[in-house]
Amino acid sequence: MYTDIFKNYEAFYNMVLSSTIMGNAPQPDLDRDQYEIINFIGKAYKLSAPLIKKCLQVIKSQLAEIALNSDRLAVYSERRYDEMLSETDVIADIKCDVLSKLENIYNNPDAGVNPGWFDYSHYKSYDSFVRFAKIESAGASGNVIATRQAGILKLLGIGSSKDIAYAIKRFTQCALWGDIPSIYYLAYAYKLNKDEKTSNIFTEVAYLCERYLKCGCTVLDDEVKKQFSEDATAYYVYISTIVQDVVYAYNKKNIDFSFVEAISSKTLTYYEIMNYINNYERKEWKNVTNSVEKPVKSLGFI
Asked: Is the pTM of this model over 0.90?
């Protein structure tokens, strides 16, 4: 019944997450915006139109009934050891996992994040402009989920004016932090922006990350490199090295925007970028964007 959805688990999970983070009460405006979000994610993952429609129906029908943290706990409490669980239970678990993810933000808010924004112990009111403002503010702390969601909303014009350049910046920040969904969204955003060349590069990067990033590989075999563009393999190395040598090594779950901005400078060579990544703890990369050695000018108020 759900085999085609399970084969595209990552896409479906992110549909559930990105639609649920918007709200949990049945409201026409919310339904409309969730449809747009789910459709966008399906297209970014290159799912067929019938499969996207099926995902939408599942999310907006049986999964809509699991809307509160108490619903999640009820789903688990009703199960018995000797019960044969079905595909329907697997689908339910995906929604429960999403609620657990949001509950984690509520229980462990980052600086500047109001935990009430992600409190799913009750039904939440919905206005797209208010929700966008809250999610964008949450992303300012470097929270990957909120940063990625802000990009989605800006790209679609939900709660704000459409701004593909803003969306691309947000997806890029997440991508460099090893967020694979954002790489798919980045590829699709470039496609919408009529930049097929860059879109194709990030489509390759997404594949490489799916195949090798999860295995902890930072070095690609020569045979693998021959199958992909030089730009894609180089970008993969950036991402995989940041994930291993910064995100995991220093437990940096939140995006270090200052670092990402520095290594994204077009003035740097490949080797300079890798040096800053490999020596993250030295903070030498700060001089790229905020030099203390050669200040451009003095500040008028000092």
From this structure: yes
Q: How many CB atoms lie within 10 A of CB 189?
A: 29
Unique residue bearing structure tokens 């809250």 = 134
Residue 39's Cα: distance from chain center in Å?
A: 16
Q: What is the pLDDT of residue 300?
A: 39
Using a 10 angstrom Cβ sphere, with 0-12 exposed, 13-18 middle and 19 or more buried, the burial of residue 179 is buried
Check residue 66 and give left, alpha or beta (phi > 0: left; psi -120 to 50: alpha): beta
Q: At 183, which helix (H) or strand (E)?
A: helix 180-192
The tally of CA atoms less than 13 A away on the side-chain side of residue 301 is: 0
Residue 184 CB partners (closer than 8 Å, separation 6+) = 44, 45, 206
Q: Tell me the C-alpha distance between 207 and 191, whole Å.
A: 16
For position 290, what pLDDT does the model report?
67
What H or E segment, with its residue span, contains residue 94?
Answer: helix 87-107
Report d(CA 82, CA 73) in Å as an integer. 19
With CA atoms as reference, report the closest residue to 55 among 7, 102, 101, 113: 7
Tokens 């990033």 belong to 213
User: What six digits make up the tokens of 176?
Assistant: 């460099």
Residue 100 to residue 300: CA distance in whole angstroms: 49
Residues of the chain with pLDDT under 70: 290-302
Burial tier of 255 (Cβ tally within 10 Å: 0-12, 13-18, 19+): buried
